[in-house]
Design brief:
By secondary structure, the chain is of the alpha+beta class. The chain has six helices and 16 strands. The relative contact order is 0.08.
């Protein structure tokens, strides 16, 4: 009798454990991360990249990435291939390179350091270079702020999807005339194409950061190069972020600014809570300033 009771008890425990397992985990629950990603992003390609989620395969980096978030050198290789097909000029890969780009919004500009890759051909006739320039002008957006011409060479800047590209040319053959002025002495050019990641959607924050940096530099009599300004939130008329006076690791503070008829105005900077008076005067939205300090009421912290 006791053995029967023990057997029945064990059987009930086994059944109960099975029920708990079914309750704790749905029958159709994915068993691995791949299944979860597949259900969210859709079908994967031959490399396992989730195309519907914006991912594509980058051969140069041997991974899936989103081109609107990260630079893929394959995009530059494709441009170089098209240039060869269209003009007959072959540009050769040099490797990774950093170069300067001038980002603009209206009349405001800021210098941006671009990390990318570089291609070159050391001996291109002018007629062939002009074919390259025509191809770039016909297919991509030229930028007037990244345009230069000089006696020894020139520069052309282009927006290319989620990249920027600098097309540079430099005359290989120069001489000085009797007056000591340099002039051309041949038709050979060194042509370089530098391209790297850049998202045009970042321009408003880049410009705002530069303008706030200039305001803070004047206020505290600092060199602009000493300041690092970050924009965390930005609308057409209000912005907020942080500032650091020195290298990484140096203590910093917060800043809040509002756009007036005279441009951006620094409303508050420091390590405290922005006063409610300033919030009310400049109509800051709650998502930028969720709390403020009521200086007229015993410095009470107000949640908006």
């Amino acid at each position: 009798m006791k053995k029967s009771i023990i057997f029945v008890t064990l059987l009930l425990l086994i059944i109960l454990a099975g029920c708990i397992n079914k309750i704790g985990r749905p029958v159709n629950a994915p068993t691995n991360n791949s299944a979860v990603e597949k259900s969210i992003g859709g079908d994967q390609d031959e490399h396992g990249c989730l195309g519907p989620a914006g991912y594509s395969w980058c051969e140069a980096k041997q991974k899936c990435l989103r081109v609107f978030e990260e630079f893929c050198p394959d995009a530059v290789a494709a441009i170089v291939g098209s240039i060869k097909n269209e003009t007959g000029v072959e540009l050769v890969l040099i490797g990774d390179k950093e170069f300067n780009w001038i980002a603009s919004e209206g009349e405001a500009t800021t210098d941006v350091r671009i990390s990318g890759t570089s291609y070159v051909n050391d001996n291109v006739p002018m007629a062939d270079y002009l074919k390259i320039e025509k191809y770039m002008n016909d297919n991509f957006e030229a930028d007037s702020y990244n345009l230069a011409d000089g006696v020894e060479g020139g520069l052309r800047g282009y927006y290319v999807d989620y990249m920027v590209c600098d097309l540079n040319f430099r005359h290989n053959q120069m001489k000085q005339n009797e007056s000591g002025i340099s002039e051309l002495d041949g038709d050979s050019l060194k042509v370089t194409l530098d391209c790297g990641y850049f998202n045009k959607n970042d321009i408003p924050n880049l410009i705002t950061a530069q303008l706030i940096k200039e305001i803070l530099a004047r206020k505290y009599q600092k060199a602009i190069s000493e300041l690092t300004v970050r924009v965390d939130k930005n609308t057409d008329n209000h912005a907020a972020g942080s500032v650091r006076f020195g290298p990484e690791g140096t203590p910093g503070g917060l800043w809040f600014a509002a756009k007036t008829d005279n441009g951006w105005e620094l409303v508050y900077d420091g390590n405290g809570i922005i006063p409610c008076d300033a919030i009310n005067k400049y109509n800051f939205p709650e998502d930028i300033v969720p709390q403020c300090l009521d200086t007229k009421n015993n410095n009470e912290l107000i949640t908006r």
